[in-house]
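okkk here we go again. third time trying to get the flavin-adenine dinucleotide bound version out, last two times i messed up the smiles copy paste (missing a bracket lol). double checked this time i swear
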Amino acid sequence: MSVPVTRTDKTIAIVGAGPGGLTAAMILARRGYRVRVFEKDVQVGGRNAALRAGDFTFDTGPTFLMVPQILDEVFELAGARVQDHLELRRLDPLYRLQFGDRSEFLPSADHDETVRRIDALFPGEGAGYRRYLDHERRKIDAVFPCLRVPYDKPWHYLRLRLLKALPKLDLNKSVYDCVAQFFRHEHLRISFTFQAKYLGMSPWECPGTFSILSAFEHLFGIYHPIGGLFRISESMADVARGHGAEIHTASPVRRVLSRNGRATGLELASGERVDADAVVLGADFGYAMTQLLDAPDRGRFTDENVRQREYSCSTFMLYLGIDGGWDAAHHNIFFSDDYRSYVRDIGTGRLSRDPSFYVQNASVTDPTLAPTGSSTLYVLVPVPNNTSGMAWNADETAAFRETVLSKLESRTGLHGLCGRIREERIITPRDWESRANVYHGAVFNLAHTINQMLYFRPHNKFSELDRCYLVGGGTHPGSGLPTIYESGRIAADLILRDIH
Ligand SMILES: Cc1cc2nc3c(=O)[nH]c(=O)nc-3n(C[C@H](O)[C@H](O)[C@H](O)COP(=O)(O)OP(=O)(O)OC[C@H]3O[C@@H](n4cnc5c(N)ncnc54)[C@H](O)[C@@H]3O)c2cc1C
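finally!!
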């Protein structure tokens, strides 16, 4: 991949050192721009930052790295190599799935082995898995390149590549419908559709395009960088700094400055003004619109317009540093007894008493996260976002913590877990909103509904204010690390085109 390196005196100011902001920062710095990143937290990474509790280290948010090829590409564009910064481990099994009836399925990174496991558990269904892989491979080949280009203009829908891919986008079907054609058993259908939750959506409502999520896992693998996924953001910051980028942590931005319909810089919370030739907004989309841009600069994205959009669910997080280990997979997902009702409850803003949950048991792969003889458990429970009206006050939080801990003990076999906890941290949907600046606490951003995809998702070149660019999970192409890296790359390309 050739990397055009320019020397320019142009300054690009970036709000937020999350994965989106950092991708743009390292590519732009490599291309010779003066890059200045302003991050409100004391560390880089945003939702992808480290969370430290005593001697234990956790990832705050992302724990699955998928399609690492995209990471390779953005590092290469920044003149760096992933392997010089990160040690990626491919996980096998992909994860352990435990269903409501307590039966378990552990898909392997080896397809033949997965067929054997499927046939043993669900006789005669192994062939469906092979058909699913073939179908999804073709779908990814057609669909994924379409997600990697900007959709700033309605006529971008007329691109030949997209027109050809349209029948494969499955926009008229749900992820569940797409997968159901390959598998008869409900457990298998859930195994290949629960990934819609990575977008904070229901498999029964998420557009069929996103059946590619489970296929990404099966075809390209799931990876864990030793040290934690936050090491990716830290490495990106190192690469950007290596090209001269300034990354100012503990530097909250108050608002975007503009003149005559053009972004001209940033005003920091400290009152300092930063001049820039372009501004990249890497903060959460809904937050950035409603808090960082003056009303005339955000045009149709009024408070009302932003509020009325559809958002993903939120998460209740429990980070436990425990004595001893847990003999289980790295990723473990426990489905509620009635998974469909649970998913429906989230959509209607109700907190389920029988939630599904995910436990990352990273110490089985990565000895760097906990002191010898102990381990980290990262527990994620998808819950309604803050439009539910729940306050998540101390009593509500304590009650839900009890529910989650008792589910953990009963479903994982970790009896006596509470007595083994040495460190504990909690993040509620209200914390996501108030501390991480995540609009509605909808951690997976704007929902990926048809009317919020491609041209209808916020553009990487902001449509309302010249010289302003948007990156991150709330923008095109979407939420999830690979697409967020793409948003940073697309924005960097657009800046190279516009500001030279
Ligand atoms: C619990 C959880 C689990 C997830 N799991 C996965 C996963 O396994 N795999 C995956 O691919 N994706 C996952 N995601 C989704 C997604 O990859 C992450 O949320 C990702 O970190 C989003 O990146 P971003 O750049 O869009 O936003 P952020 O990471 O939120 O970055 C925005 C940055 O802007 C900063 N900021 C905000 N306001 C200001 C301000 N006023 N001034 C200065 N700075 C500001 C923030 O502090 C933050 O650093 C997960 C998300 C969550 C929350």
